[in-house]
Amino acid sequence: MTAPASAGATAGRRVRSRLVLTVVGLVALASLALSSLAYVLVARSLEAEVLDRALDDARFNIEVLAAERLDEVVRPGDIEASGLADDFQRRGVAVYVDLGGEPGEDFVSGLDVVTVPAAVSAELTRAVAEGRLAAERVDLEGVPHLVAAARRPPAGPDFYFATDVSDTERALAQLRLVLLAASLVLLLLGLLAGRRGARLAGSLADSVAELTAARERERRFVADVSHELRTPVTALVQEADELAARVDDLPPAARRVVELLDGDVRRLRDLVEELLELSRLDSADHTGDLEVDELDVGRFLAAIAARRAPQAAVEVPEGLRVRSDRRRLERIVTNLVDNAREHADAVGLTVTARTEDTTLIIEVADLGPGVADDELERIFDRFSKADTARGRGGSGLGLAIVRANARVLGAEVAARNREGGGLAVTVRVPVEVVAEP
User: Fold this and answer.
1) Quick one: which of 165, 333, 377, 379 has the fewest CB in 10 Å?
2) In this structure, is residue 168 part of a structural domain?
């Protein structure tokens, strides 16, 4: 009794640990992805805004102010003399103007660095020489700047406007800290939620493990009981046969008792055999035990019908041949035919077969009382007798054996009520089609 409980507790601990790790991992990944996405979007937006503003300002300063104030040829001192330098100073514009002479003759405003052309990349210098407006991020004396540069057409000079972007970078650094803190808070909440959910899931896992262990005990019990009953039931059948053979020698009152005894003993034998079959099907995975043979579907079904219900109509396209496990397929069809014979007196019993691609579809239908719609799925449960109108005789295991064998074949089985009355059970079996009609 302690082993299943210990197994259940172990299963619960495993589920709890896995669930906590899973939840924490998912929260960590989600928070990291969301934080990274938010940072990238904000950073790109801010950088794009700063870049657009720097390019617009540079374009205005060159194409409007410089074009109005400066002559075509600019010499040292012309920028101060034109008043352009005062405009730059009032507006707080940091600019380096390369006049094309000695570095000491260039104009510098708002910058401590007098060698901006030497600090920028060769790509930016080449873009300026080609007459294009371009920009790049540069560290000037350890301070991050965005340098927007262009040449005043047609021959210069070259203007380098520097925008301090240290505030933007500090804002992005603060954003990184905020997002990191938010991620840690989410991770903590995820850990708390994971632990709470893990306790619930662990309890559920314990219950499932206990139920599984109980079901396994029940299966073993049924198998053991069926095995132990097989010998005495076999002896009872033999003794009932001996009595039945001498029934004519018995008084009339005793004959009825012997007939009832003979029928009951045979039903008991069938029940034990069916329980043993179900226990064998439950004991292991039998998909590797399939014995595949080639079947002439028409002859195969006709032979079953002739043995179990000679009045049944068999409708199969001539020449249909498939490869499947004969023994299990025969067990399925036999049980379905027996079910229709026992519960519907085989009224209107038809057995049909056809193929769709690589699926063999077999249907066994009758014109009996049918089954309530809400009970159609339950009729495949063990010991199920959903409708008393169809409940005459039988152990309630026949359709359960059908479903168990269908599962081994990888087949699907379903029941439906026919429009004109009666029950139809359809089995869809994956097969290898050898020959089609």
Assistant:
1) 377
2) yes
